[in-house]
Recover the amino acids of this structure.
């Protein structure tokens, strides 16, 4: 069987997920923007280098055929950041948050879509914050915290659009619950300290992965949103099919750019 592709090879959740997949007998290929830091993966996992905010780097990647993709990366920031790398700039300013959380990862998934086998999982980490962040439209024009919140909504909507378009795949978005993470490091003081304090009581990723991985592999129907390992109804605004399609079209146009 081809390997599963995981993003965020340096995050605790991706490391724990890789270990669990390997324990189940699967092969794993992992992505990291700095492979030298991806030291905790199980032996034998191939690590490919890519900065997910860089469309050219994503296009250069020599990707193997994969059995499914699990996108576990992301950044959270509190201020606008210049449009990175080669994303076409325009009246709809694209913040780094959008590039890293949505445009880059989904450009990668678009590259994989034609070759994914029947039943392949396409799992995107999202967050419960989508409940408080309905997308007013699909321009991806917000910045700062708002972009971070709305990016979670966009991923839920894109995955639901994928579930309608590709019933042969299993599209999932999930909030892992509060799991150990380096996420607070991207926040400005004093939020970084508050985040670091909250991180002290976060769950160990090695407890989360054994619940999450079986669900992502075969535990539910496509389009599902999971919260802390439990199937959960996403916020009502994510059922807006017209907006789902607008998000899909927007991502597809960036993915082809
Ligand atoms: N942890 C939680 O409790 C929680 C809860 C709900 C939702 N989430 C969501 O989960 C996602 C990941 O969070 P996390 O807790 O796993 O954070 P984390 O521990 O900080 O991991 C983030 C990962 O993303 C990678 N990354 C960041 N920018 C990248 C880029 N441009 N290209 C490639 N990789 C990049 C980081 O790599 P580097 O090592 O190179 O920085 C790191 O591996 C976020 O979208 C967050 O909103 C997390």
């Amino acid at each position: 069987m081809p390997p599963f592709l995981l993003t965020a090879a340096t995050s605790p959740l991706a490391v724990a997920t890789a270990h669990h997949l390997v324990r189940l007998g699967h092969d794993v290929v992992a992505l990291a923007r700095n492979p030298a830091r991806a030291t905790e993966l199980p032996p034998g996992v191939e690590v490919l280098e890519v900065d997910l905010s860089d469309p050219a780097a994503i296009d250069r990647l020599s990707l193997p055929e994969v059995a499914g993709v699990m996108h576990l990366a992301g950044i959270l920031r509190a201020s606008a950041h210049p449009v990175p790398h080669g994303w076409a700039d325009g009246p709809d300013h694209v913040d780094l948050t959008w590039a890293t959380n949505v445009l880059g990862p989904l450009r990668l998934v678009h590259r994989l879509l034609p070759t994914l086998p029947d039943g392949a999982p396409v799992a995107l980490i999202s967050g419960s914050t989508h409940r408080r962040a309905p997308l007013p439209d699909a321009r991806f024009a917000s910045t700062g915290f708002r972009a971070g919140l709305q990016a979670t909504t966009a991923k839920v909507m894109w995955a639901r659009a994928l579930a309608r378009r590709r019933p042969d795949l299993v599209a999932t978005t999930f909030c892992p619950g509060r799991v150990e993470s380096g996420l607070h490091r991207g926040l400005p003081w004093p939020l970084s300290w508050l985040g670091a304090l909250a991180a002290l009581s976060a769950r160990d990723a090695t407890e989360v992965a054994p619940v999450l991985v079986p669900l992502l592999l075969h535990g539910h129907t496509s389009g599902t949103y999971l919260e802390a390992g439990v199937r959960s109804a996403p916020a009502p605004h994510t059922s807006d099919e017209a907006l789902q399609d607008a998000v899909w079209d927007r991502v597809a146009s960036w993915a082809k750019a």
